Amino acid sequence: MAQHQAHKHDDREFGKNWVTSSRFLFYVQLFTFLAFVGGCSYNLYAHRYKGKPKVEVPESTQYTPKYKS
């Protein structure tokens, strides 16, 4: 009877039962991937381009420059 209980316990160990361990690792990988994608998306949203700033360009540096006479 003691051998049967020991064998039953071996089935629940992480390294012995590949079905349980592979399922666990799959869910860990899925959670990690989703957390990474969510974090990257939030970071891109938080640091997004806010729009075109109004920049004053000197007239002497434009494509057709205007010089003082």
Describe, in plain words, how this protein is organized in 3D:
It is a single chain. With 69 residues, the protein is mostly helical. The chain has a domain at 2-48. The protein has 2 helices and no strands. It has helices at residues 2-12, 18-46. The mean pLDDT is 82.
In short:
By secondary structure, the chain is mainly alpha-helical. Helices cover 58% and strands 0% of the residues.
What keywords describe this structure?
69 residues, mainly alpha, 2 helices
Unreliable parts: none
Shape type: rod-shaped
- The overall pLDDT average reads 82
Structural class from helices and strands? Answer: mainly alpha
Number of strands: 0
Secondary structure layout:
Layout: H1 2-12, H2 18-46
